[in-house]
Amino acid sequence: MSYRDLREFVDILSENGELVEVKAEVNWDREIGAITRKVLNSKGKALLFENIKDYKNTPCTKLITNLIGSRKRLCIALGLKDDTPFNEITRFMKDRFSKRIDPVKVKKGPVKENIIKGKDVDLFKFPVPKWHHLDGGRYINTFAGIVTMDPDTKNMNIGIYRGMVGSKNSIPVLLAASQHWGMHFAKYRAMNKPMPVACVYGWDPALFITASIPLQHHGYSEYEIAGSLRGAPVELVKCETSDLYVPAWAEIVVEGFISPDPKTFEMEGPFGEYPGYYGGMASSKPKINVECITHRNDPIFGGLLVGATPGKWDEAAYYANTGFCAVAWNFLETVGVPNILDVWASPVTESTNMRVKIRKIYRGHAKQVANALWGSGIGNYAAKNVIVVDEDIDIHDDEAIEWAIAYRVNADMNDVVFFPGTIGSMLDPSVPLKLRDVQKYGQGKWCRTLIDATKNWELEREEQYGGELYPPLATDIDPEDEKLIAKRWKEYGI
Q: Which range of residues forms the domain containing residue 334?
């Protein structure tokens, strides 16, 4: 289901009882973040703050957060039934991500109702929160689609990357070389040219879902995939300062350039990050030098509280985790790994731990799964630990996973495999601090682990049980016995 703009989606949430309009005055400095965390922890509704301290008479007075922070709201965003389970949501995304609908370029749109340039640019006129008490500053890029372009192919990419307000016209950012915009930036740096950037705030949630996951798109962009996810083309308008294109119905767009010159860098970090810890040490990093802001009349700023721990999910746990699994599933099939039956990850790990169910047809099948994931772009932040199970195990059931690990894994028979020295998340606190230096290394460093929890085909066959690899389950009742006790059940008085 497509939404013309954020406002239409917000109206739908309101009609479904999934929105709270907060009328009381709140402070952008930590109070909004604390309220949002409290609501997230209790699995509450989307929040539209309409009375923010210091933002009564500014161009932007409203902030929305926790927009799709529940399974029901994710289903509403995707046009699915409210109670659609995660495994079906994953299959839906998997299908939509494998298709595309081309965007449509238009000459104008509501996002051009106000155009601010030069000395009039002032990021402090927008109600950007300081989300957590130990954050290095006010984080403007948490739920923003960051648009960049490959200077050679002219293909655009839209990703979600964190950025902090550095000054009235600068946004220092955490820029990883292994991500798409990092690859674009490397090309601009080689040419000694600044990279054009556009930051999109507020539109159909489909764009931010696609922007948050490592989609592979050769010759096209996330706009085509977002079109498929929403079932309608994305209407795009050209930026004022570059050849980048942005959604015509977006609430706010910030345009600028990132210089490769370290002399222009600014301090950024730390920030309350997705593993649930503060991450990304304070250091000098590249910045977006803002040259233009366009926005609708009375725009709604959008933000995202990041960080998930047991029992305390963040908003991305609902949609990014599902999207990562869908992308991983598509990728495994694309590179020729057969018989992938399901892919899932606990939302609290946001795909750092990934589970894959297969119909095993040869020895080494599970290792093929892990090697494919680890060698792909999905591996930047996902699949640090991979668990592969047989078709009789429900990967959405933690008990089933624990049981498979307990009785189908023997580390001495190569069921546990380590793959050291790979790229990985620079925000993982289990990695030594010096190895998380993104400016020096471009990304973090992981030792990855495969747990092959499929039945090991090198075990001796159980001849007394018909030559099967494993004995029968003792917890199953024989069909004849089942018939007997069913017939006599009332007699037992149980």
A: 316-453
